[in-house]
Amino acid sequence: MSWINRVRNAIPFIAKRQESADTLWHKCSSCGQMIFTREWEENLSVCPKCDHHGRIGPKARFDQLLDQGFTVLPTPTVREDPLKFRDSKKYTDRIKAARAATGDTDALINARGAIDGKPVVLGVQNFAYMGGSMGMAVGAAFIQGVEAAIESRAPYVIFTAAGGARMQEGILSLMQMPRATVAIRKLHAAGLPYIVVLTDPTTGGVTASYAMLGDIQIAEPNALIGFAGQRVIENTIREKLPEGFQRAEYLLAHGMIDMVVHRRDLKTTLAQVVSYLAPAQAA
To answer: What does the alpha-carbon distance between residue 259 and residue 233 come to, in Å, rounded to a whole number?
Structure first.
């Protein structure tokens, strides 16, 4: 240890090295505003200047929405790297890196709990885990969430955030789309609601399946929601598309979703929706 580090550690009022600009400050990805990390977290990861909703993972969602005492469900075990896939890196190495970066086993995590006293099973996709991509583990976790909701006689609420199917798993990834659709039908057959909250971004095969099958479709402000990218669509149809046509507010204006809700109001809104759709379970 160098002498300057010994002096720094010995003097309590000098900030430790780990309290660097990277940990003390957060830069808004929309407006570029520098915000104290504590202020950013206390504001639910929403920029106080431009109101941009930052991307957050399962732990933050559970803490923000669920009453104390919720239980995180164990991630289902599936076969990893079934195709022995490799591009610039081995798929297994990408999985290890994603787990180290997020602390999650895969991109969809479920928890059983309550929102303002109303029982729910809550699933959250984590875009930080390989773009929230839908592979076999995500499909298994979605089915787990539905089965837990049926067992608990509670609605299944899912927060989507994904770049689409996980191409490292090929057709096995795409097969999760019909599997999720069948699971939703089982939930409806049990007389239970399915509530979707679309967050930034929700795209690809996730949008083409369970993300757009909710009894109620809610979105966070300015969330990117679509199937293919704007440039791909424009090159295909040879037409210029409206600015922001894949944003939550545009979809609301054109009837594709039911409401756009600020993050600070999400817990109250979800509690109300659960009361309306599942009054017996919420009582």
So the answer is: 25
